[in-house]
Design goal:
Blueprint (H helix, E strand, L loop, with lengths): L8 H7 L2 H4 L2 H9 L3 H14 L4 H13 L3 H14 L4 H13 L3 H14 L4 H19 L2
Helix pairs in contact: 3-4, 4-5, 5-6, 6-7, 7-8, 7-9, 8-9
Amino acid sequence: MKVKCIFLFIVCLAYTSLSFASNWDEILKLIKNGNETEAIAIVNQYIQKYPNDPELIFLRGATLDHFGKTREAKENFLILCNKYPKDPIIKNNLGVLYAKLGEYRKARVFFELALKLKTDYKEAKNNLSLIQMQDRVYLTSK
């Protein structure tokens, strides 16, 4: 099953602080070239300078997930979810991460929470329907 995620690094640029934006091209290049260690190190350097910057925490989570470190990415999004409980984007992305980890019940909860906050949230609706479809397939195969 493949859920759709809105981890678009271009979208992250809109969220990042101006002081960080100057190194954006460098980080994108590192990510594109698969330089995981360097990309994460640079993001972590910024987080050391600005530890409470939600955009940087979002970017770190997205970067970690991009490089297959989904469990670590999930921890970043849990931090954001606790700080910003009314943000449907964070909840949807947490749902995506749980789905990637095979934790479909938790994924469903976060997709539903995202939809409670924003009833017309297309990505969360699509992701929830994929989870529901998987549940139906599982139940009919028993």
